[in-house]
Design a protein that fits this description.
The chain has helices at about 5-15, 20-30, 30-45, 55-70, 85-105, 115-125, 150-160, 180-185, 190-195, 215-220, 225-230, 265, 285-290, 300-310, and strands spanning about 75-80, 110-115, 135-140, 165, 200-205, 235-240, 240-245, 270-275, 295-300. The protein is an alpha/beta fold and about 325 residues long. Strand 8, helix 13 and strand 9 form a beta-alpha-beta unit. Helix 4 crosses helix 14 and helix 6 runs parallel beside helix 7 (about 150-160). The protein is elongated, with a radius of gyration of 24 Å.
């Protein structure tokens, strides 16, 4: 039997009849290594072609393309829900599965989190763990009024589901002036917290847009903030309260000098930076963060993934 025949027979027994490589080796009097080489050659030469009938296979393809195009370590693409109101729940489920796997495999010592509806959905879907050695830190200040999506609530819930340590950033998201910001940030307790925040093993954040759908726009900005002024200055959305332009660079606006959160340069030092967001209104800020290399992994929906790949910026 020549090499071509061996390859075809081994491939048939493996892919059609379902035999293991060990069983094929026995039947054909070949070593397991030789069987493995024949199966690999069958795929390489096109004798065997594998196709997937599941609609989810396209999402896997999109994940690979996002990683290649934007230099990401990982990407998770969820189906786009027919009802946009379900976007946070869909992304939350996918992000929870991803985080469960990541935490189990990497066993991080510390995790930094932000705030928002997607993070709220994520923590509700995560598998409870027992990881008292992990520190969970908020990477930014919080709202001054109670809310289940507030940074204080989000960091508490992440710590609770992991049975981990909880560390609050006990400050507002924005100071009322640049002078107040400088006074707050000069405090040793905040300087130490920011130093610790920049040293977390992984961060998990969402991004905000500049429309009325943004929770940051609705609840987080200082009174009298003119969102139109931010847009005219080039803002397409925010990350950690820092408003960014289409290239992912901070805009020149006083608000960016009032935000009480991790500095973006320090944020870049975090080795694993996960951003979970999706929907039409989030595509511009997602594109900006990817273009600027602010994420090492993303969780998004299929329509957003296709839009990002069609127009990477």
């Amino acid at each position: 039997m020549d090499n071509q025949q061996l390859m075809v027979k081994a491939a048939w027994l493996y892919h059609v009849e379902g035999l293991t490589q060990a069983q094929i080796g026995e039947r054909m009097n070949l070593t397991r290594r030789r069987v493995n080489e024949l199966l690999a050659a069958a795929l390489e030469s096109g004798v065997v072609r594998i196709s997937f009938s599941s609609p989810l296979s396209e999402n896997v393809e999109l994940e690979g393309e996002l990683c290649r195009r934007f230099g990401l370590q990982e990407a998770v693409v969820a189906p786009t829900p027919s009802d946009p109101g379900h976007m946070h729940a869909v992304l939350g489920r996918s992000a929870a599965t991803f985080l469960d796997r990541l935490i189990e495999s990497r066993q991080p010592r510390s995790i930094g989190v932000g705030w928002g509806a997607t993070l709220n959905e994520t923590v509700q879907q995560m598998t409870p763990a027992n990881a008292p050695q992990i520190k969970v830190l908020s990477l930014m200040g919080g709202l001054t009024r109670g809310s289940e999506i507030n940074t204080f609530e989000i960091v508490r819930r992440f710590a609770k589901v992991l049975k981990a340590e909880c560390h609050y950033f006990a400050a507002p998201i924005y100071a009322d002036s640049m002078q107040s910001h400088d006074v707050i940030m000069a405090q040793p307790v905040f300087r130490e917290f920011l130093r610790e925040s920049s040293s977390v093993d992984l961060s998990f954040l969402s991004v905000g847009d500049v429309t009325g759908q943004s929770l940051q726009v609705r609840y987080g900005l200082p009174p009298q903030t003119d969102i139109g002024e931010l847009v005219r200055a080039g803002a397409v959305g925010d990350l950690l309260g820092h408003y960014l332009d289409a290239d992912g660079k901070p805009i020149d606006h006083p608000l960016n000098r009032q935000v009480i959160s991790l500095d973006l340069n320090a944020y870049r030092d975090i080795p694993s930076r996960i951003i979970a967001s999706g929907g039409l209104h989030k595509q511009a800020i997602l594109r900006a963060t990817l273009k600027a290399g602010l994420a090492t992994a993303i969780v998004t929906d299929a329509d957003s993934a296709r839009a990002l790949l069609a127009n990477p910026g």
